[in-house]
Design a protein that fits this description.
By secondary structure, the protein is α/β, with parallel strands linked by helices. It has a single domain, classed as Nucleotidyltransferase, domain 5 (2-Layer Sandwich). Helices cover about 35% and strands about 30% of the residues. The protein is built from 5 helices and 5 strands, in the order E-E-E-H-H-H-E-H-E-H. A 5-stranded mixed β-sheet has the order 3-2-1-4-5. The two termini are about 25 Å apart.
């Protein structure tokens, strides 16, 4: 069994303002590889978002914008099951691709929060963070 877990951070409430992407590749239950990149969101940083992830405008100065990160990210995700926690990460990637007129990322998407809600009834309403 092989899958990629993904986490995306955004600079502000606009889901397309990706400022970091991180992925971890698992095979047969073992961590095989990781990949991450800071991303220049070409947008402002909201203090609320910075308080959540700690990434600032200064941290991404000189980093590539999303279109330059996209080919590497696409190569990592293509053909894999991509696990994301809640709709946020997939939505952010979709909106960033749309913002830059890039084709949607090709992957089989699996929302881990939905899996938890269905597998453990005690977490069906909340508590799956």
């Amino acid at each position: 069994m092989r899958f990629v877990a993904i986490d995306v951070e955004t600079a502000n409430p606009n889901c397309a303002s990706i400022c970091q992407v991180g992925v971890a590749l698992f095979e047969d239950g073992e961590l095989i590889d990781t990949w991450s990149s800071l991303v220049d969101p070409e947008d402002y940083f909201d203090p609320v978002n910075v308080s959540i992830h700690g990434i600032t405008e200064a941290d991404v100065a000189g980093e590539p914008p999303f279109p330059r990160v996209y080919p590497d990210l696409s190569n990592v995700l293509r053909g894999n099951t991509v696990v994301h926690h809640t709709h946020f990460d997939r939505t952010a990637l979709t909106r960033a691709a749309r913002r830059y007129r890039l084709s949607p990322l090709e992957a089989a998407w699996l929302d881990s929060a939905k899996v938890v809600r269905r597998a453990w009834p005690e977490f069906a309403q909340s508590g799956y963070g």
